[in-house]
């Protein structure tokens, strides 16, 4: 696991765009079907946009038709799960274990995957590194 990343609110605001800050630091959500990594099918690694920690690998990504990039598992110890009772429902929130940024939610509703889970992750929370090491969106 990566060393913990801690920054002040002002430091986060300086390095993140308004939308990135709203989702990553204020637990917001980007609009469905708008994320630049939603339809990405390249081989590589998905990293936390806030701290660059490795979160997901392309071989765990699948098309769940939910409007956000979906993965059936995260890298070992890369994320922390917690109960989210906002919006009048109980969900399981997914946060980056390295910088405590909000990433999205996980749902146990994907029987077509090896784990049965669907990590529904905001595209704006991620960067993508191609298998050859090229940084992308």
Give an overview of the whole structure.
This protein has helices at 9-15, 18-24; strands at 44-48, 54-57, 61-62, 70-71, 79-84, 91-96, 102-107, 118-121, 126-130. It is mainly beta and 137 residues long. It has one domain (9-130): Peptide methionine sulfoxide reductase (Metal Binding Protein, Guanine Nucleotide Exchange Factor, Chain A, Beta Complex). The longest helix is centred in the N-terminal third of the chain and has 7 residues, at 9-15. The mean pLDDT is 94.
Present the secondary structure layout.
Blueprint: H1 9-15, H2 18-24, E1 44-48, E2 54-57, E3 61-62, E4 70-71, E5 79-84, E6 91-96, E7 102-107, E8 118-121, E9 126-130
Antiparallel strand pairs: 1-2, 1-9, 3-4, 4-8, 5-6, 6-7, 7-8
Summed up, what is this model?
The chain is mainly β. The protein has helices spanning 9-15, 18-24; strands spanning 44-48, 54-57, 61-62, 70-71, 79-84, 91-96, 102-107, 118-121, 126-130. The longest helix is centred in the first third of the chain and has 7 residues, at 9-15.
